[in-house]
Design a protein that fits this description.
seven-stranded antiparallel sheet; signal; 28% strand; binds 2-acetamido-2-deoxy-beta-D-glucopyranose; single chain; Peptidase_S1A; alpha+beta; globular; Thrombin, subunit H; 13 strands; Trypsin_dom; 5 helices
């Protein structure tokens, strides 16, 4: 009887954990790309609305690379990425292969606060996946995108890796900035202004994050999702950055959140860039 009680307690503890969002393209990315496209086209109809805030937002994240993704099925999906050099960007491995859906081309969108028009737009199928990317366990969710040379401008610039004194920093308690073209809430319709947005989020310990997702591996970095502020579907692969010594530093790559939604207060999980410094440096 006691073992039965323990078993029930164990099962309910397991069930209490949040299921991470999996098979990103079919569960979120394709729907999100269609929503962004429709919202951007609605803005075209009334172009005056976006002029005001766009210039400031444009220069604010010069390392941001939007990804318009063509899947082998022909469907269009969306992710983000971060410019690391004139020819390389970092993204999440699941943006190229989510365990069920394979991409065949990324259109990298640099220097634009809109995803489907504007900026410098570069097509590529050259993606270097982490050899141990595991869609089941969401381990090693990192990839490098290779593009033809792009020059830096006020709106296009590289972001640093967390090297030197930052290489062993866990960043707990630090406020970091996530950027993306994804939705700004679980119930955002096309009526909302659609452009690149950003949110400041405090980094939490992996132990606290594990209270939501169960086991959280060391190479994952989590931020608090309190007060409905978090990354959302569509933001996958995009940057989580801090400022250190006046320089912007990439500390996370948007990896996963709760399958139930992005505004429910659960943490959001990122690839911990310090865990992959050497792997990334060998490729940029
Ligand atoms: C890039 O890919 C998109 C989507 O397939 C296509 O519409 C566009 O013409 C391509 N651009 C170039 C320069 O090849």
């Amino acid at each position: 009887m006691k073992s039965f009680v323990l078993f029930v307690a164990f099962v309910s503890a397991v069930l209490a954990f949040e299921e991470p969002l999996r098979f990103y393209h079919e569960t979120a990315g394709i729907r999100e790309a269609a929503r962004i496209k429709q919202a951007e086209e609605a803005l075209d109809f009334d172009g005056g609305r976006i002029t005001g805030g766009s210039a400031a937002a444009l220069g604010a994240h010069p390392h941001m690379g939007g990804l318009v993704i063509t899947l082998t099925s022909g469907a269009t999906s969306v992710c983000g990425s971060s410019l690391l050099s004139n020819t390389r960007l970092a993204t999440a491995a699941h943006c190229w292969w989510d365990g069920r859906n394979q991409a065949r081309q990324f259109t990298v969108v640099l220097g634009s606060i809109r995803l489907f028009t504007g900026g410098v737009r570069i097509n590529t199928s050259n993606v270097q996946m982490h050899g141990s990317w595991n869609p089941s366990t969401i381990q090693n969710d990192v990839a490098i995108i290779v593009i033809g040379w792009v020059g830096y401008t006020n709106a296009i610039n590289r972001i640093n890796l967390p090297l030197g004194t930052l290489a062993n920093n866990l960043f707990v308690g630090t406020t970091a900035t996530a950027a993306g073209f994804g939705r700004t809430g679980d119930n955002v319709g096309i009526g909302n202004n659609q452009f690149l947005s950003h949110v400041n989020l405090p980094v939490i310990t992996n132990a606290v994050c594990a209270q939501t997702f169960g086991n959280v591996i060391a190479s994952t970095l989590c931020v608090s999702g309190a007060n409905g502020r978090s990354t959302c579907p569509g933001d996958s692969g995009g940057p989580l950055a801090v400022t250190s010594g006046g320089q912007r530093v990439l500390i996370g790559i948007t990896s996963f959140g709760s399958a139930r939604g992005c505004q429910l207060g659960f943490p959001a999980a990122f690839v911990r860039v310090t865990s992959f410094n050497a792997w990334i440096q060998a490729r940029i």
